Fold this protein.
Amino acid sequence: MSTDTHIPADKPAAQIGAGLSLAGPRDFFQLMKPRVMSLVIFTAVIGLLVAPGSLPLYNSVMAIFCIAVGAGASGALNMWYDADIDAQMTRTKKRPLPRGVMAPSTALTFGFLLSAVSVWMLGLATNYVAAGLLAFTIFFYVVIYTMWLKRRTPQNIVIGGAPGALPPMIGYAAVTGTVTLDSTILFLIIFIWTPPHFWALALYKLSDYGRVGIPMMPNIAGPKSTKNQMFAYSIALAFVAAAPVVTGLSGSIYAFGAFLLNVAFVALTFKVWRSRAGEKDEVQPESLYEVQKGDRDARNLFAFSIIYLFAMFALIGVDHLLRGSL
Amino acid sequence: MTEYRDKPTQFSAPTPAEIKARTKRNLALAAGLLIFVVLVFVTMVSRGQLPNAV
């Protein structure tokens, strides 16, 4: 964005403009990664719902609102730091900073303000364990993942998956004020789900990450090794998915649904393992779901993995509600 | 002693698009601040920390 307000003598001022930002509220909303936020809200609601004890409705709504705003703040700070690489990737080049409608300092200020407000308000509305977890989530996502790991190691999204997995734990802590085995299981389901989910995307967006020097697993270890690891993670995920039944967090409804979902997840990962996904290195289509021939299985797994996570948490919630009413 | 002032001779006028974007931002900022104030108040009340006047 240009901030130069000098006007050449041969052009009228009205055509040049004053160099003011063209960013509207929609751009600020886009800065908060609404798609990621929807998953954060949903998993946090389930965490809050299954926690033993109760929280008044207003405080529950405030807790979810603060967790969502905190996640949005991390998104804004991530976009501020990654504006250089976002501009070069087909998937991210239409974000507000690469488009030039917003100054980087604006995104930084916006992210900082929302972070502080969301953590403080969550502490006020619920308790300081939940607020501390939210602050840790924002710190981990921005400093540990975005600034440190993302550009340095192919394990970036494995370790960096932690902040994305914390929202149900925060929701749970908002009610109980503690971290328990059950909330850790909710955390682990998302944590173990993250590598196969992101590597499926990385397999068919390989050159996009490679062009900007992000060391995603397929670029560094190669597609074959990535697919082996994805398959191993999908098996580990099936075991973690059984844990809520073992601890008594969930019952038979969950057990039945989770069994089907995990069979499908392992089967789709197996299809990716057998496919040629990620073995070509060409310019990739702009859309998140458009693929070249050979990458279709990876795209299908990526799309299914999103449905999988929503469905798993929906099952935990429904099972809890039905068991409570029986 | 006369104070020195560098009087501007050239002015840059914002374009209609810039004014429209700024107005929208200002309205969103005002709404955001208002919501924040209301939420803090209601949260304090929900915690039983009523202001003296209430």
Q: What stands out?
A: Chain B has one helix and no strands. The first helix of chain B runs from residue 16 to 46. Chain B touches chain A through 22 residues (CB under 8 Å). The two ends of chain B are 56 Å apart (CA to CA).
